Amino acid sequence: METTKKGKPKAKGNGQGTIYKMSNGKFRGQLTIGYNENGTPKRKSFIGKTKKEVSDKMKAFYVDNNRGLLPTDDKITLSQWFYTWLFTYRIHDLKPSSFERYEGLYRNYIESSSLGKIKLMDLRTHHIQAYYNSLVSEDGKSPSTIKTINKCLKSCLNQALKEGYVAKNYCTIITLPKDSESPKDTINVFTLEEQQTFMKECINNKNGMLYILALGTGLRLGEILALRWTDINLKENYININKALKSTYIIDNKGNREFTVIEQPPKTKNSIRTVPLNNNLIDLLLEHRKKQMIERDSNIDIYFDNNLVFSTPQGNYLSESNVRKSFKRVLKKCNLNDFRFHDLRHTFATRLFENGIPPKTVQSLLGHSNISTTLNIYTHVMKDTKDKAIDKLNFLFNL
């Protein structure tokens, strides 16, 4: 930039900064390299004996810093930036349970890692790629774990890119490990006979109605534990699903962790849905309500009425872990040991498919955001159906 006749700097366009002659005869150049929180510009100065010398220094600065890193923050590491991003930009816009997962990724894979120690201004794709490769080859981490880390780190670097700390998001051209060709988790469902055996045993279990409702609606455990009677329309026969119970840790920026149980929106926006109830389920729920009122009246001095459909004798949330343990005890009595609670949801979907309900309808009832998740269950059901169909033709080949 040139000076005016009055000695004031004359601005140049395209971010080239200003150059002017000082009273001592030397030249001084300034570049705006960012802005403070109050909106005032951050500037870097260059001094030389001639205007050309200053101009060359400024050009060299641009070449050396074409990655976009703000020089006032040229020592910040990836770990430091990740922490800032997490506790400044994401702490309030993530569900507490999601924030806990992000914080866990930071603590386990970024904070003290070789990758986390790299300065942002020096970070390149090959650093990230090498780190991911080592996690797979040396630590045995799965492709899904690497993809989860990269998704989180990519979001972190997007913010760094917006603020001028990096020139590009180096996560976008990473070669992620491919999932193995091994089949996905086996879908385990009750046969009709097993389901009837299980439901009969539920009558003798304090959480039996909860398990029966899961079989009759396909609700997730967190959705069931958060249910209030106001969510159930006993006249129109349906349930409104609009929340889920989640056990998580609330974490502050000093790393303090406090365990808590919270209600939060369901897993995805598709999980907010209405699920119809059959008449038999309505009758069972009404009977359950009567028993609950009797229990409430017998504990009136210590009962806190949260209007929960399923609660402790004191009216509080049921523990997810206790419900799962109780579920295992019921299974054991039925000699059905290889099932998870989530398999009740798969069993519900399977019964629908067996009765000719279209996949899109099943997807809506289950609240799946992706039809492929629903079709994975459908494929399992159809394989079993095809096997049975072929077995029926077995007699034709008895030569």
UniProtKB/TrEMBL annotation:
Gene3D superfamilies listed in its UniProt record: 1.10.150.130, Intergrase catalytic core
Residue ranges constituting the Core-binding (CB) domain according to the UniProt record: 76-161
Tyr recombinase domain residues: 185-391
UniProt keyword DNA-binding, yes or no: yes
Stored InterPro entries: CB (IPR044068), DNA_brk_join_enz (IPR011010), Integrase-like_cat_sf (IPR013762), Integrase_catalytic (IPR002104), Integrase_recombinase_N (IPR010998), Integrase_SAM-like_N (IPR004107), Tyrosine_recombinase_XerCD (IPR050090)
One GO molecular-function entry: DNA binding
A Pfam family per the record: Phage_int_SAM_3
Lineage: superkingdom: Bacteria
Function as written in the Swiss-Prot or TrEMBL entry: Site-specific tyrosine recombinase, which acts by catalyzing the cutting and rejoining of the recombining DNA molecules.
Protein name: Integrase
Gene symbol of the encoding locus: xerD_2
